[in-house]
Amino acid sequence: MPEAGLIGWREIRTFLDPGTQVSGKLSFTTPTRIDGRLRGEVRASDLLVIATGGQVQGTVWPTSLVVAGEIRGQILGAERVEIQAGGRVTGTIETKVLIVVDGASFEGDCRMSDEIAREMEHPARG
After folding, report:
1. Residue 1 confidence (pLDDT) above 70
2. Of 88, 80, 82, the residue nearest 112 (C-alpha)
3. pLDDT-derived band of residue 2, with 50, 70 and 90 as boundaries?
4. Residues 69, 51 contacting (CB under 8 angstroms)
5. What is the number of structural domains in the chain?
6. Between 122 and 13, where is the model more confident?
7. pTM of the model
8. Does residue 106 lie within any of the structural domains?
9. Is 48 within a domain?
10. Which of 18, 22, 86, 110 is the right S-S partner for 93, CB 3.0 to 4.6 Å?
């Protein structure tokens, strides 16, 4: 199981189990693992793990994200994104740190900057 080596994986307190399907806007404040399917928006102020078999379609605003499953959409304002072997991301990533390991797949656009997380916390007003 690739995600077993994750920093903080033992601390995960919120789970969406396999077979679970959710649509809408979700917000998590504790380390969270998604093994099911999610369509919509996800905000996570702690570790978010998309486990093997987990699927997310939509926009994700994580602090720290590990992908061993699949994301289709946007990943915005992340401190760190790690795509593990077998993990797939299709879309846009905005993060300070991006790690794509052997056997992982990323297709899309990426913007990396130390300013990204701060921009998401304090968006420009217009």
Report:
1. no
2. 80
3. very low
4. yes
5. 1
6. 13
7. 0.85
8. yes
9. yes
10. 110
HEC secondary structure over 51-107: CCCCEEEEEEEEEEEEECCEEEEEEEEEEEEEECCCCEEEEEEEEEEEEECCCCEEE
CA 74 – CA 87 distance, rounded (Å): 15
The answer to whether residue 1 is domain-embedded is no
Range(s) of the domain holding residue 104: 8-116
The DSSP call for residue 30 is S
Query: Where does the pLDDT of residue 126 fall: very low under 50, low under 70, confident under 90, or very high at 90 and above?
Result: very low
Q: How many helices (H) and strands (E) does the chain have?
A: 1, 8
Contacting residues for 86 by C-beta, under 8 A, at least 6 apart: 2, 52, 68, 103, 104
Q: What's the rounded Cα separation, in Å, for the pair 118 and 100?
A: 23
- Closest alpha carbon to 51 in 95, 90, 113, 9: 9
- Mean pLDDT over the full length of the chain: 88
> pLDDT, tens digit, for every residue of 70-96?
999 999 999 999 999 999 999 999 999
Q: Is residue 24, in this structure, part of any structural domain at all?
A: yes
Give the pair of three-digit tokens for residue 56: 């997310």
